From TrEMBL:
Keywords, alphabetical: Signal
Recorded coiled-coil stretches: none
Ranges where the record places region Disordered: 22-53
Signal peptide boundaries: 1-19
Keyword field contains Transmembrane: no
Listed InterPro entries: Glyco_hydro_beta-prop_sf
Protein name (database record): Beta-xylosidase
Length: 491
């Protein structure tokens, strides 16, 4: 699975920047009030500091695991959780397995759910599209549901790779979604020597959209060697309806996920995607000559707001960005208003049969973000973050406002990140409403919602949130759902 996609084909590296960004406080808000602000400069050079790396290997499978690569790293409920591609002889059919481990910090040690060696939590399903290989995980948590996007293949045949989806209540026990069928396969726009097909997914959840970035060596806009990263988005996590593809003119509706691949966002393989609220930008992490290059895009993927930045060091495959549960960048514990941490895990050496292994951590901070420069910037920076309120409840920042939530467990489920202390800058955001235990809940074909004390309907991601709040959803028609005064989405 690994050798056919990389084929030793890379792009030139980019140099690290050290100058302060210019007029970074003019970045437009993405979340909430959509505050109108002057356009910001593009291609700004960012300063960097606090370079870091682990002292050695932070995670590896058991003794029979000859390789470890393709990590997905999540900061979730006070732990660092990681899923990656390996192979255990007794886990399932011969082929790739997805391993899972957790640690108290990014530098490990990472252990399985009950301690000891990492556990194989997802393997091939004989007779299905992923009968032999399950690899390249990208994991999100939205509300109370974990989503695992992965590369699957029935065997080692050409063009056998496609992308599948599984869901879980805990990130350990997984159930295949979409009837066990792939949610995305090769487009077959072009026939190239690299016959890998479609795979290596990376997914971000932003403003109700699932953004799916992936490799497709058969895509029209891929390079001569098959390198390229394509983007789809949908409000459906399985991409079964409402899918849009990134084209040369922006996102356009497509009839299926196999629509022609007209535009690639970076020339590379095995990349990772993250939304950075403090910079109001997406970042694509991909390997280049000197390490991991961070390439920045505006929210609509029309411009590069910042110059590329390099996280230097050795690598053989990767990287996996350290992300929040929703795929967003975590806040800096030292200074969330000025620093943005970027950390990656990547395979650094070769193991048996020349496969990548030895997962290590590398990172740095980008400085001078001015992320609290005005209310719009504060809203974007802290969107999806929950923290204690002055009333011994929890505040969740959504859509440029704070929602006061009585139950800490509910706030944590809705949050991409939980802080133990509220940053002073958040006080500029108004309190919009309060969610009390047992609040009225409704269910319609479009989803679930809770009626807060402002008597507005605030959408929630799934039934797990409703139950955790001690509420019971009663069914309503689409017309009744649409008649409610609406708040924003809580997740």
């Amino acid at each position: 699975m690994f050798a056919s996609v990389l084929a030793g084909l890379l792009v030139a590296g980019c140099t690290q920047g050290y100058a302060q960004p210019q007029a970074a406080g003019d970045q437009p808000a993405i979340a909430g009030g959509k505050t109108a602000e002057p356009p910001r400069p593009t291609d700004v050079k960012l300063a960097s500091g606090d370079p870091r790396q682990s002292g050695g290997v932070i995670a590896a499978g058991g003794a029979d695991a000859v390789y470890n690569y393709g990590p997905s790293v999540m900061l979730d409920h006070g732990q660092t959780r990681m899923w990656w591609c390996s192979q255990y002889g007794g886990a399932g059919p011969a082929g790739d397995d997805i391993l899972y481990a957790r640690a108290q910090s990014i530098d490990g040690p990472f252990t399985g759910p009950g301690g000891g060696i990492p556990a194989a939590v997802f393997s091939g399903a004989p007779g299905q599209f992923d009968g032999m290989h399950t690899c390249d995980p990208s994991v999100l948590r939205v509300g109370s549901t974990y989503y695992l996007y992965y590369t699957g293949a029935a065997g080692d045949h050409a063009l056998g790779n496609a992308i599948g989806l599984a869901t879980s209540p805990d990130g350990v026990h997984w159930t295949r979604a979409a009837g066990g069928r792939p949610i995305l396969g090769p487009s077959h726009d072009v026939h190239r020597a690299n016959v890998y097909g479609a795979g290596q997914p990376s997914v971000v959840y932003l403003d109700g959209w699932f953004y799916l970035m992936f490799t497709d060596t058969t895509g029209r806009a891929a390079g001569w060697n098959g390198a390229g990263q394509f983007l789809l988005r949908s409000r459906d996590p399985a991409f079964g309806s409402g899918a849009q593809a990134l084209d040369v003119g922006g996102f356009v509706p497509v009839a299926s996920t196999s629509a022609p691949r007209a535009r690639s966002v970076v020339d590379g393989f095995s990349a990772d995607l993250m939304w950075v609220g403090a910079l109001a930008a997406f970042v694509v992490a991909h390997e280049t000559d000197g390490g991991t290059t961070l390439t920045f895009w505006t929210a609509d993927f029309t411009e590069h707001p910042f110059q590329p930045v390099l996280i230097p060091g050795p690598w053989k495959e990767g990287p996996g960005l350290v992300r929040r549960a929703d795929g967003h960048a975590p806040l800096s514990s030292a200074d969330p208003c000025d620093r943005v941490p970027f950390d990656v895990v990547r395979a650094t050496t070769l193991g048996g049969a020349g496969a990548p292994t030895d997962l290590r951590h590398f990172g740095l901070d980008l400085l001078g973000s001015r992320a609290c420069g005005n209310p719009g910037r504060v809203a974007a920076t802290f969107d999806g973050v929950t923290m204690p309120s002055p009333e011994r409840t929890m505040d969740l920042v959504r859509a440029g406002r704070r929602v006061r939530i009585d139950r800490r467990s509910v706030a944590a489920m809705l949050a991409g990140e939980l802080l133990e202390k509220a940053p002073p800058a958040v006080a500029v955001l108004p309190v919009a409403a309060r969610l009390r235990p047992g609040a009225e809940a409704v269910q319609a074909p479009g989803g679930f919602g809770l009626l807060l004390d402002d008597r507005r309907l605030w959408r929630v991601p799934d039934a797990g949130i409703v139950a955790a709040n001690g509420s019971a959803a009663h069914p309503v028609t689409a017309a009744q759902w649409n008649a409610y005064p609406r708040g924003a989405s809580l997740g």
